Description:
This protein is α/β, with parallel strands linked by helices. It contains 23 helices and 31 strands. Strand 28 (681-684) and strand 29 (691-692) form a beta hairpin.
Amino acid sequence: MNAATVDTHCPYCALQCGMGLRLARPGPAAAGPGVEVVERPGFPVNRGALCGKGRTAAELLAPGARLTTPLVRNADTGVLEPAGWDAALDRVAAGLRQTGEAYGRDAVGVFGGGGLTNEKAYTLGKFARVALGTSQIDYNGRFCMSSAAAAHGRAFGLDRGLPFPLADVARTGCVILVGSNLAETMPPALRYLTELRENGGKLIVVDPRRTRTAEQADLHLAPRPGTDLALALGLLHLVVAQGRTDEEFIAARTSGWEEARSAAMAHWPEMVERITGVPVPQLREAVRLFCDAASSMVLTARGPEQQSKGTDTVGAWINLCLATGRAGRELSGYGCLTGQGNGQGGREHGQKADQLPGYRKLDDPAARRHVAEVWGVDPDVLPGPGRSAYELLDALGSDVRALLLMGSNPVVSAPRAAHVEERIRSLDFLAVADVVLSETAALADVVLPVAQWAEETGTTTNLEGRVLLRRRALDPPPGVRTDLEVLNGLAARLGWEKGFPTAPEEVFDELRRASAGGPADYSGITYRRIAEEDGVFWPCPQPPESDSPTDHPGTPRLFLDRFATPDGRARFVPVTHRPADEETDDAYPVVLTTGRVLAQYQSGAQTRRVAELNTAEPGPFVQLHPRLAERLGVADGEPVAVVSRRGRAVAPARVSGAIRPDTVFMPFHWPGEGRANTLTNPALDPTSRMPEFKVCAVRLEAVGTDGVVETVEVVGSEGQPGA
C-alpha cells in the first residue's frame, strides 16, 4: 500500500505547528517506519518548520513507549496490575461515588490539563459539574498564563493570548519580549523575530539570563528576577517625563489614566535601577526604541507572569502600551505567548475553577442558565466556583479525598512539589488517565491508558486564538481508549447514560452551542471551516438570523474598533512595585528562577521517553555565574545542592557567564533529586492564583562524595550576564 499523509498538528506547545503524518500502512502505530512526521509547508504559523520535539513526536505512538492496558492497584500487594476496562472503570466510578456519598460532593476533585483538546476540556468540566456535582475542578493551565489572562480581562475585557496573528510580529517596528526564551521554548516562532529585524524593526529582550533569544536582541535588559514590575513602571515613568504619551489615544479610547500615571511617576529611573539592576541608560534606550517606532508590541511569557504579583506586572506592561497608543491598532498591542498546546482553549470551555464554556463566569446567573439549558439540567444544580489549582492540590487528603486526574503530572510540575506529592499520597482514592506512566500516575489506585494526539480527532486553540483541527491518523493500540470514551464510561456508571458523547465532532457541536453569545464564541466554527481555512480565529459567532456558520469570517485582530469592556474603552489599572513573596537574606542569599530547555517539555513525562531528546538534554542542571561558582568552589559538571525553605535539589553545575551573579537557573522537567519544583514557592497571586515559580530564595552547597563540602554564604546583587 502506498504511504498516506494526514495533515495534523504537533502535540506540544501553543504554536500548534502544522505537520503531516505519513503512514506506511494502516492500523495501530508500530515502532520503526510505520508512521513518520513530515513537514507541512502550507500551514501559516510555522510554514513547515519543526523543532526536535515535533520531529520526534511519533516515537511515543509505538506501543512499547506508552501504556496499553488499564492498571489497578492490588489491595494486598500494593502493586499496580493489568486489568480489564470494565473492572478499571467500575473501580474508578465506585471510588468517586463512595467518596462523594461519605464526605459530600466537594470531597471529589478533578484536575485537568492544558494539553487536552477543546472537546476533552469541555467534557471534563461538564463531567465534574454534572455527573459528579463537584465544584473542585481546576487544571495545570493555572500555572501557565493565568496572570496574563487576569490582566487581559482587567484592561481589555477579554483574554486571548495574542490579539493579532503571529505574522504581525514580523511587521511591527519594535518588540519588547519579556521573560520568554522563544529560541528554546518555541523555536519555529523565532523566525518572526528574525524577520522583524530583517525588516528594520528592533527587538528588546527582558530576561535575567542571556539566552539564545537574548542573543538576537538589539537591547538586552537583565533585571533581577521578581523585579519586572518595577522595570515596566520605570519605563512608563520615562515615557511620561519625556512627553511621549499619546494623549489623543488616551482620551479617546481609555479610562483611568491619571491614577495609573501617578502610580508610575513614583518609580523614578534611579530607584528602578537600584531595584532591578538595569542601568538607567538602558532604560532610556528601551524607551527610545519603543517610542521611535511607528508601531510597537509588548509580548510576555512565564517570566513576569509566574510571580505572586504577576497580574499587576502584566498590567504594568499593558499600561505602557496604552499610554503610548500601542494597543487597539494594527501592528501594535500587548500579547501573551501561551505555553501549553491548548493552554488557550483549555481555559475557555470549563475546566477552570470559575468558568463555564465560552469564557462565561460560573457565578453569572445568565451564563449558568444558558449552559444549563444546553446541558439539559437545572442551573441551580450547577456548583459554584471551586479552588484554584495549587489550592486544590494542597487540599488533597483533607477536604478533597478522591481525585480524577487527566493530562497532568503535578508530582513534577507543581510548586512545592514534595508537599504536593505527599498530599497526593494521602488521598483515599486517585485515578489517572494518561498516555504514559508518569510520576503521578505511578501513585494512582487506577491508571487508564488513553489515546494520543494522532489517534483521535479534536480541536485545539493556539496562542493566536486560531482554532485548529488535529486529525486522527491511525488507530490506538488495542487496549487503549480515548478520554471521551473514558468519561462516557464513567458517566454511565454514575447514572448519566446520555449527555457524554464519544464522537469529537458531536462534542464540538455541543461546545459551539454552549459558547454561543459568550466572550469566546465558537458558534460559527465547524470542523469543515477549520480544515478549509487553516484554522478560524475566535470570536466567530453565528449570527442569529443565519442558518450558515460561514457568515462570520472570524476575528484575527481584536480591539481595532473598540475594546471588549462595557464602554468600549481599555482600562488603565494603577499598580506599584512590591517585593517578591520571598526575598533573599543571609541564610538564603541567592535567587532561583526556573524554566524550560529546548529538548524537553513541561514535566518531561513524554519527552524523557524519546532517545534523541534525552541525548540532547539528559538531565537537570544548575546554571550559575562563574563568580558564584568560584566562591562556592565548584567546577562545571560537579554536583551542586540548591536549598530553599521547602527542600533540597541536587544537580550538576553548568557554569555560564550568561546569567546574573546573584541568580541561578534550573529547568523543571525532571523528577528525583534534581526536581526543581521541590524548591519553588507556592505563594499565590491574589487575582490569578498563579504560584511564584520564577522567584525564590535559596542557598547553594557544593556536594562531594562525602556529602556537603562548602556552603556559599552571601552573594551580592551586582552585575549582569557577561559581567
